Amino acid sequence: MNIFSYLQSGLSAIIPFVILLGILIFVHELGHFLVARWCGVRVEVFSLGFGKKLLKYKKGDTTYALSLIPLGGYVKMFGEQPGDNISEEDKKHSFTHKNVWQRIAVVIAGPLMNFFFAVLIFFAVALIGEDAKTPVVGDVAQNTPAYAAGFRSGDKIVSINETQVNTWEDLQRALSLKENHNLHIDVVVQREGSEETTKIATDAKAEPNPNVLSSYEYVANVDGLTPYSAGTTIGVLQGSPLAALGVQTGDSITSINGQKVAYWRQLEDTLAKQNSKEALTLEVLGMREGDKEAKPITVTLAPTESIKTYSMASLGFESSELYLSKVMDNSPAKAAGLHAMDRLVSINNVTLKKWEDVINNIKSFDGKNPVAVTVLRDGQNLNLNITPKMTTQMLPTGTEEKRYTIGIAPIANIAAPELMVVRSENLGQAFVRGVEKTWDVSVMTVMSFVRLFQAKISPKNIGGVISIGQAASETFKIGLTQFLQMMAIISVNLFILNLLPIPVLDGGHLVFYAIEVVKGAPLSMRKMELAQQVGLALLMSLMIFALFNDFTRILGL
């Protein structure tokens, strides 16, 4: 995507961004405002945004304003500066002259409002209904412990150790461990296409939790047990029957003679059941020149003498995962002459079967001799020599890994996990769900700071206003529930961030008041001013760093 496209994307994100941030800022400042008024403090200004006031309205002692820069807000209270000259009569309305516990209440009210607002949002989402992954097992390879234990692709997990499982999240929670110990599990599954249940007993091996933001250090894992399945995105061989019908590499088969197919494992069996003496009708999802999104396409193959049975081989297609979707600019692959849609055949004379083989062979580069890569292009094998370069890759866990790469990406062939709508049955259940979700997100946010300091996740994951804008825009496009959930997550982040003990933030003020409680007297003006300056410098540095991360991610640096 070029810079112009990113600018367009940025402009389209403005409205959702302003809605999301405006509501969260209003909620935060409303907390300060309400508790200040409750404590008898005169509030002079309640502003959404900073800078020049675009709209303002005065009622009583307070001016309510909408200001130019929508990246924050503030509540200006009478007497909030310790050096202000205040008459005896006005001291009863002065923030500084309130007792320390009242000042603590006013300051902490903003972050707490963000926390309670997140509970309210998750409560509403629980009533509306939220998407969750079904507890259905994905592809189970025959050479895995999961297969040996008795799990099969498409099994629906009903319970684990007599605890009911409704979603894949429930399963993950049941397998989360605080300590490093193996776990015996009794799992009840419902086999695909059957209403009967099967009991599977097996041992799960304790392993470090791949989710570094979880407070659980370990998970009980059965190798091969996953919710993910290969999809139906295909690579079409040149000169094949499908190529003659106009089906292209990157298309996804969605039905065969009217029978829906969602997973790769379904294709061969479904094709084999079709009568080769009759026409074969395929529905595929694909993009053609001029399309902005994939569209359904129907093709019909007339029966021919050359095709005795319908199969992947006879129709001339295979999985797309060894076909290249992209060759990065200024990469070793680009310099060597690799093109998008090339099909990888072998590396150093090792035949490739899956994308993992590509990664492992490139990672094992010795740093000396170029890697011999064979690709299929226009029906001909092409041999190329490519010298990988050391790069830093961001892993899904948020950590960075240095390894050799050549600058290529595959045409992904992963089916979206099957989703279900989870809805609370009553208000009480919805409230409990709201509290649980808010607590879970709070723990994850705190753990993100802990892992940053432990260097277990990369500081490149820190995002700024651009990241928030993009998240707001993307979730806004998907639907109301997703947008509300993103708002709740950011509200929790504001709750945690504002409680950090950094002067300028609410947490910094709370530190000052905590010292005052212990000492019995406030810190000197000089010390507070110095701390405020240091805090402002830290906060500005963090904001600049977050913006730097946003721009480097956008520009692909």
Write the layout of secondary structure elements.
Layout: H1 3-12, H2 14-38, E1 43-59, E2 62-77, H3 100-128, E3 130-133, H4 145-149, E4 156-160, E5 163-164, H5 168-174, E6 176-177, E7 183-190, E8 197-208, E9 218-221, E10 229-230, E11 234-236, H6 241-244, E12 252-256, E13 259-260, H7 264-272, E14 280-286, E15 295-301, H8 312-315, E16 317-319, E17 324-327, H9 332-336, E18 343-347, E19 350-351, H10 355-363, E20 371-377, E21 380-386, E22 389-394, E23 400-405, E24 408-410, E25 414-415, E26 419-422, H11 427-453, H12 465-478, H13 480-498, H14 506-519, H15 525-555
Antiparallel strand pairs: 1-2, 3-26, 4-5, 4-7, 6-9, 7-8, 8-9, 10-25, 11-16, 12-13, 12-14, 14-15, 17-24, 18-19, 18-20, 20-21, 22-23
Helix pairs in contact: 2-3, 2-12, 3-11, 3-13, 3-14, 11-13, 12-13
